[in-house]
Design goal:
single chain, Arc Repressor Mutant, subunit A, 3-stranded antiparallel sheet, 3 strands
Length: 169
């Protein structure tokens, strides 16, 4: 979990810890994902992160106790697995619980999808790339022999013109 994400309920982009889902919501998310496909705890963290557009990544310190709680409630059960990680599958009681809480499941899954849509709209990767290219081009041109005061004014004028056009978009 790099890039400013992580923490108790994923820091979101740009760092800072904030709780995006309460314990009940996380229970529903985990149970729904396990019902869709038996999973390991780490797989659940990665799946939630992917479903949220990399905005929300619950920490292992929250996920594993919640999985233990779901198992204690009889909603999931550990399955035999060849590795050292615990594989969880939904039980009949877990399936019934999901049906009983169908509206809540829909809400939390919609919220994950909403986070992903927000991430898609606000992904600044193309802008960061273009700004990096601009910086490189400006440095390269100004470092060239013969970059006099007029050249610097011309470069500044082009950048100002681009900024003005962007503001009018």
């Amino acid at each position: 979990m790099g890039g400013g994400r992580g923490g108790s309920f994923g820091g979101g982009r740009g760092g800072g810890r904030r709780r995006l889902f309460g314990n009940d919501a996380l229970k529903l998310i985990l149970l729904k994902l396990i019902a869709d496909n038996p999973r390991h705890g780490y797989d659940l963290i990665r799946e939630i992160e992917a479903l949220s557009g990399e905005i929300y990544a619950p920490s292992p310190g929250v996920v594993y106790p919640t999985l233990t709680l779901l198992a204690d409630m009889g909603l999931i059960a550990e399955q035999p697995d060849e590795g050292s990680r615990k594989l969880f599958a939904v039980t009949d009681a877990g399936t019934a619980y999901l049906v009983e809480h169908e509206a809540g499941v829909g809400q939390v899954m919609d919220r994950l999808a909403s986070l992903a849509r927000k991430a898609e709209r606000t992904d600044g990767a193309p802008i960061r790339r273009a700004m990096h290219n601009l910086g490189m081009a400006v440095r390269h041109r100004l470092e060239k022999e013969g970059a006099d005061a007029q050249t610097m004014f011309d470069v500044a004028s082009l950048i100002d013109e681009a900024a003005s056009k962007i503001e009018r978009l």
